[in-house]
Specification:
The protein is α+β, with helices and mostly antiparallel strands. Helix content is 26%, strand content 30%. The chain contains 13 helices and 31 strands. Strands 18-17-23-14-15-22-19-20 form an eight-stranded antiparallel β-sheet. An eight-stranded antiparallel β-sheet has the order 27-24-26-25-29-30-28-31. The chain has a seven-stranded mixed β-sheet with strand order 2-3-1-4-5-11-6, with helices on both faces. Helix 5 packs parallel to helix 6 and helix 11 (409-421) crosses helix 12. Bound molecules: guanosine-5'-diphosphate (GDP). Guanosine-5'-diphosphate is lined by residues 19, 21-27, 90, 141-142, 144-145, 256-258.
């Protein structure tokens, strides 16, 4: 054990925010960045989304569609802790990207619009978080508007998501009548409109009530809230840190990101309660402690052309052990080759700065010239370290793709290679003709691909939809190219493994009937 390193690791909090689009993820992120002092005024992150702030020209597509396509990383210091926020795209077509991002965090914050409750995308993302088994903290947002009954909202967590919600605070009024928060965890009331900033909090007495001479003590909203608190005290769940860490219980906080109400209280509790980076399983069976002396990490995201002026490519590494330093020599586990990490950056809001110090939990951006792939493990020291592979979604939508201008093969291939390495889409080749076929989980992935090919690689592409297809891999020893037809197109994946793209489940059954001895698998 390395005490000094462990102290640093224990100061890290690395999390992702998940939400249905428009629940307020961007707004709450921005408030946190404000609290962390990395941005000076509200509107910076927001503006990026609306396009006044050109972080990257291809975010144009986000602007046009009003959705968040990328996941970005933001780091800041707060109350002696180093916070890493990993943003995730809200749109379901990018769930694979979100999935990979969730592999790199130790906790998740789930933002819910209190007027809408749990929406479809929240449900989907939650499922992923659950599989990861990481703790989830819930923020019920938009309290400044009339929303659903708080008791309903908490009950819905259990009914729809199957996770017990435990209230950490409770609204006093809502919308027009909102007065504040009854802060159960901190034993105080937080006022929505304090007379002055120094008197934001009212203390509670032993019985957990306001003394009669306090403002609000005879306010009808407050009295209603007290009735509900009594109900909760009788029947509500009790906070259980173990259950939270095991992902069985979620602490619930109410607030309003837009009016910056309850966000600080939330962040303080989160920083206290969320886990520091933990050990990882490596080489299938070994446990690697975060304070192990030797550096290790894995690449969960690659993004080209984040900065249109530089046209560079960044590989995002989640550090899992040891300490990063400039010029560190590591081994790339996939190839066994040495790589020197000379040029690494971290992300403070929109700015990139040279990494000063990075330990387990931190995210480091490496300038990449094509060495890295998503899921790669890197390690210093002699002992090989390989992290579990990142999950891959099997694509369901397919497109045939070719350059519009055959004279521009070079830029077509360059763009194609880079975007495939990023994991933006999957690439297949027709087994016979070698034609390019792209696979994706969602339609929007193709649109982003096409847009980026044009804008970043100056390559107009022709795309012809093959529609929904069922991908099934076949053992090469059993393969006879004559098995292929238009209803079960034979292709190979980027590693050369053969698979069929069936038109539908019916075509797959037909194939099974015809070739009963041939075994097909859903994934390799
Ligand atoms: P995202 O898609 O989850 O990132 O959501 P945004 O942060 O972009 O918010 C979506 C919309 O909801 C924006 O118009 C925000 O101004 C608004 N919004 C966010 N938080 C609040 C809030 O607490 N109260 C109200 N009234 N509106 C909010």
């Amino acid at each position: 054990m390395n005490k000094e390193l462990l102290d640093k690791v224990n100061k890290r909090r690395t999390f992702a925010i998940i939400s249905h689009p428009d629940a307020g993820k961007t707004t709450i992120t921005e408030q946190m960045l404000l609290l962390g002092g990395v941005i000076r005024s509200a509107g910076t992150v927001k503006a990026r989304k609306t396009g006044n702030y050109a972080t990257s020209d291809w975010m144009e597509i986000e602007k046009k569609r009003g959705i968040s396509v990328t996941s970005s990383v933001m780091q800041f210091e707060y109350e002696g802790k180093r916070i890493n926020i990993l943003d995730t795209p809200g749109h379901q077509d990018f769930s694979e990207d979100t999935y990979r991002t969730l592999m790199a965090v130790d906790a998740a914050v789930m933002v819910i619009d209190s007027a809408r409750g749990i929406e479809p995308q929240t449900k989907k993302l939650f499922k992923v978080v659950r599989q990861r088994g990481i703790p989830v903290f819930t923020f019920m947002n938009k309290l400044d508007r009339d929303g659903r009954e708080p008791l309903d909202l908490v009950a819905e967590l259990e009914d729809v998501l199957g996770i017990e919600g435990v209230a950490m605070n409770w609204p006093i009024g809502m919308g027009q009548t909102m007065k504040g928060l009854y802060d159960i965890a901190n034993h105080r009331i937080e006022l929505y409109h304090p007379a002055d900033a120094d008197h934001r909090f009212l203390p509670l007495n032993e019985a957990g009530r306001l003394d009669p001479d306090q403002p609000l003590a005879d306010d009808p909203q407050y009295l209603d809230t007290m009735d509900e608190i009594e109900l909760l005290e009788g029947a509500g769940a009790e906070f259980d840190r173990e259950a939270v860490l095991a992902g069985k219980q979620t602490p619930v906080f109410f607030g309003s990101a837009l009016t910056n109400f309850g966000v600080e209280t939330f962040l303080q509790s989160f920083v206290d309660l969320a886990p520091a980076p933990a050990a990882h399983v490596v080489n299938e069976t070994e446990t690697l402690a975060p304070d192990d002396d030797e550096f290790s990490g894995f690449i969960f995201k690659i993004q080209a052309n984040m900065n249109p002026q530089h046209r560079d490519r960044i590989a995002f590494v989640r550090v899992c052990s040891g300490e990063f330093s400039k010029g560190l020599d590591v081994t790339l586990a996939r190839t066994g080759k040495p790589v020197r990490l000379n040029n690494a950056v971290e992300f403070e809001s929109s700015a990139r700065v040279q990494v000063s110090e990075a330990v387990a939990g931190d995210i480091v951006g490496l300038y990449d010239t094509g060495n890295f792939q998503i899921g790669d493990s890197i390690y210093a020291g002699k002992h090989k370290v390989e992290f579990a592979p990142l999950p891959e979604f099997t694509p369901e939508l397919f497109m045939r793709v070719s350059p519009k201008n055959v004279m521009k093969q070079k830029s077509f291939h360059k763009g194609m290679n880079q975007l495939v390495q990023e994991g933006a889409v999957q690439l297949y080749r027709n087994y016979q003709t070698e034609d390019y076929i792209l696979g994706a989980v969602g339609q929007l992935q193709f649109e982003v691909f096409q847009y980026r090919m044009k804008n970043e690689y100056n390559s107009d592409v022709e795309m012809t939809s093959l529609g929904h297809r069922v991908a099934r891999w076949i053992d090469p020893d059993q393969l006879d190219p004559k098995m292929s037809s238009s209803r079960n197109l034979l292709v190979k994946d980027r590693f050369g493994n053969p698979l069929f793209l069936f038109e539908n489940a019916f075509a797959e059954r037909w194939f099974h009937d015809k070739y009963p001895d041939v075994k097909l698998t859903e994934k390799l």
